[in-house]
Specification:
The structure holds 4 protein chains of 4 kinds. Chain A is mostly helical. Chain A has 13 helices and 2 strands, in the order αααααβααααβαααα. The chains are: A mainly alpha, B alpha/beta, C alpha/beta, D mainly alpha. Chain A: It is found in: Cell membrane.
Chain lengths: 313, 249, 387, 298
Amino acid sequence: MTRDLRWPAFVLLAATAFALPFIGDSYIVQLATRMLIFGMAALGIDFFLAYVGQLSLGHTIFLASGAYLTALLTMAGLESALLVWPIVLLGVALLALAAGMLALRTGGLYFIMITLAFTQMLFFFLQSQRGLGGDEGFSVPQRNTLPLLDLSDPRNLYLLVLVLLLGVIGLIAWIRATPFGAAIEACRDNAQRLSAMGLDPYGYRLSGFVFSAVIVGLAGILYTNNTLYLTPALSGWYLSGELLMMVILGGSGSLLGPVLGAALFVLLQEQLSHITPHWMAGLGALLVARVMLMKDGFWNVLARRLGGDDSHS
Amino acid sequence: MTAILETRALRKSFGGLVVTRDVDLTLEEGETHALIGPNGAGKTSLVNLLSGTLSPTAGDVLLAGEIITRLPSHRRARRGLARTFQISTLFDSFTAEKSLVLALLARQGHCYRLGRMAGFSCLRDEARRLLDLVGLTGRNLVPTASMSHGEHRQLELALALAASPKVMLLDEPMAGLGGEETAKMIELLRSLRGRYTILLVEHDMDAVFALADRISVLAEGRLIATGSPADIRSNAGVRQAYFGDDDGD
Amino acid sequence: MKLLVAIGLALALTVSAQAADPLKLGFVTTLSGATGAVGNEAQRGFDIALQQLGGQIGGRDISVVLVDDKGSAAEAVEIATRLVERDKVDLVMGLANSAVLMAGSKRLLASGKIVVGAYAGPSPFAGAGCHPNAFFTNFQNDQWAEGMGAYLNAKGVKRLALMALDYQAGWDHLAGIKRTFKGEIVSEVLTPFTQLDFAAEFAQLRPKKPDALFVFYVGGPAVSFVKQFTQAGLNTQIPLYSLDALTDPLTLPALGASGLGIVSTATWNPELDNPANKRFVAAFKAKYGRVPASYAQAHYDAVMLLDGAIRQRGGDISDTDAFRQALREARFDSVRGPFAFNNNHMPIQNVYVQQVVAGADGKPYVKLIGIAAEKASDSYHQDCPLK
Amino acid sequence: MTIALLVEQLINGLQQGLMLFLMAAGVTLVFGIMRLINLAHGSMFMLAAYVAVAVFAATDSYLLAFIVALAGISVLAMLLELAIFRPLYARGHLDQLLASFGLVLVFNEIAVMVWGREPLYLSIPPLLSGQVEILPGVPYPVYRLAVSALAIAAGLGLWLILSRTRLGMQMRGGAERREVMEAMGVNIRAIATMVFGIGACLAGVAGLMTAPIMPVQSGMGDPILILTLVVMIIGGVGSLRGALIAALIVGVVDTFGRILLPQLIGLNAGSALSNMVIYVLMAVVLVIRPTGLVRSAT
């Protein structure tokens, strides 16, 4: 057996990510910030997809609600991140609890579609808010504030996003190692057996749903702080599709797959659009090719090359 | 002897199709009770009604004297009702040991624990003891997906045992096993006799007559006879309904 | 890696060549996505202008950084950062999409760049939120509809029905017409972008028997609306009024004969009789074989505005205050006739009335029939602190 | 609201429902038989309309445009089945959704490359223009009535194929007992290809019928696709009867939601709510009946 190179690869990637703001210009830093934020959202969606075992088109609700709540609280005069962010995460968790309790009554394709229905409802709701500029959206006056770290500097924001992303990766790895995480995955493998063991599958699905929603909600908070401009498109089904694309480009069920998938997606979209206005065709063809020609996302394939058969990095 | 699991006029129908007809079944504490019947007699449906996978159209299920008819299966499991499945129902991505540790943790009915799984070393020891018991010694770190069919049947049983159940519902534990494996399983079940109350659904008549204290016979959803192995062997009605033109299948 | 090297080289080259640099103009427009047609037409107008100016603006060589905003506000901030920090543009124009304009302009303006919005003129920029370095050359978003309200008053319309797309621009236009129309509004309907069938709305409308119907629809929904309106036979019962976006040369061919008779307001028409317009329309026709749409005209005019101001400064725009003053004076021949900037840097201009009629070749075209409001200013300028 | 208006609006709603049924029939058939979810169905709707416009522009014949568009779209769908979808049957919903989403992006851009971004136009056949009075004082466009008749005819045709032909019986058998049909020697794969062709043909009919009343442009299939999925889900995936019921319900609820809600709760809130009304309908149906209105055979 060859040496397991996944840890060195991870360390190398993380080191590069930390070095980036000191070597790249602020455009690169902003592009990378968006990659990481979408990476975090993709990670949240993939937690639900890979470990709870259900596909949701509705996680953009939590991206949008996290982003909008942050913006509204900030505009209402609450600026401290230490105050705003926990409130927003709690709000997202409650929303996820309500949405999950309804949606998880169904399964499979029905679940996919009921979550789609939720995103559409939120989309049309936000789009009808005249005080928030309708579809054109609105500008958020400033970023949240943290003691000791000046977030108005894009480099600092980037570093914070990076640290939070690594924290989320660590959190997911830790949850998976606990009985709670094991019960969630057991429920994906076989809900009937879980139930025969005395555990309620619905409860674990719901917990997994809320947990993944909170991760996506955190991405929403960071999104607002990064762009300082919000539109209802944040809750559109199209963005849901894009986030899933990121997941499967990188590879589902691994901690780095969705993040690297997001980075690749953002980079491709950005580069292709410089080459041709028909970049969407390129993206579409890539997606078809990925599904048809590869059994897994590129990171998972690579990770397997780097060490062992286990796709979990 | 007290009745630990009972059904009263239990009935289940899907539209016009009645799969369980007014079944009154009683399991005495500590007995191994076999449930037999021809294919399509409704044996698995009855097990599913007992375990809570299906809910009945009419009638009641009682565990230790309490009505549990409306409880979902995980609540029944928590009250001491364990089961195995005819088609192996396991956590494919888990190792045998991880599955068992989870099952041991699940006895209290929740797993919202945030310590590391691997840290519960006392449970790991118990998991290995159970694996030894069912004959899976040394297989604790093998992923379930890469185990053989026979090993799956053994793991099914281990998972049921992990719950320290009051009653075990074993749905065809020998299904799909070869001759040697079947013999081993019979030996294993024999070793459990008397220590657990067992409802054994089984096609293998040798196994049934070797293990059962009492036998109930199901035909077309109806319980047509209950009695000792000797009674059942000599029961004319059973012979006609069940052994009639075919000596078991 | 190769890419990084290439970018590095390009950066090195730009730095060393700065002295003899051409003027760097960032041109942001929508080339892909649902509203990609807008950017394509804008680019045509831009190209014609540059062609007529011999590839220079204000006598200076020009280097254009063309950016596709994809019609999405999500990337607008990054686009702005890229233009400022990487491409180091001298000024930015285009930004036809209101959301992109609002999302991206903050970053651009914060860096001290002059921003020339060549199409949308959102109300937040017209009132208290106006900015000394932000100029809007086409219109304030409500201007067409306000003109239409005045025209309907003059026509003696008493009972007016309203229909519009249920989004910000639709709300703006309805607000605009309600601001100037003096009669009674008998019904008001909003429909989403995704709705392409209007049978139910027409059934409700018919019994109300309004004197006129004013609608705001663009793109796909505009085509559905007009075709179904005609099919339902309503075109013979209720006169239809709208804005240039419904009758422009991008939409008109898809309307076919069902568009005949529609009256719309605009701030420019291909038939306007002035030398600048004749030159522009002739050049556009020669190159693309049809009359231009207002997106092309607006970007043509925006380039001409820049040309006039830069020329006035002798090609040197490094003194921002002086360049801003030159832009405010707007010394150029606009194809739309009279043009001046208001204190909020929105245009003061005529609102024209036009009607779709059959041309000599039988094909519908948009005929200029009058002026709805002369040298009209927008309704927000008094809130703008700029003098 | 007068009775005449009520009737007229009901007809509008039902008509919209019929169109949705034509779209939903194809998706639900494919899902029922092959367990595959195909987002590119909306692209079939779009491409049929484009081809019809192109053929009509070249030949000035509605009949030819009609035939070429339907035949072309059916063949294209069958080729797609062979090349793209066949390997996806064994995959999960995610792979199916994303691969077909990729196809949607590709087809939308191909349409832009070939036909441009500006909307195209197909005029109404002269025979079908104008209005008739369906009730005293209520003129109704002839074309819409014709479209409804065609939709009903297409639906009946589908029903005849399914209930009266050997192919139809094999298709229904495939949906219910796939293994049994395979054991009987029926070539399920060939049937799947046929089902794709038939489904695309129905989508094509819907696309052709909309071409004269809606703009033909890139992405025109996307909103219809979402509605189609909503209909399929409300009806119960895989059930044609469910799809028909759901399509009519969605059509009528959407129509009345659009006209009544703004009157009841004010223009702004009412318009906003009417945009979501079918999604609310779907969510409510699924919360009450988690697998749709009609349980399909499987």
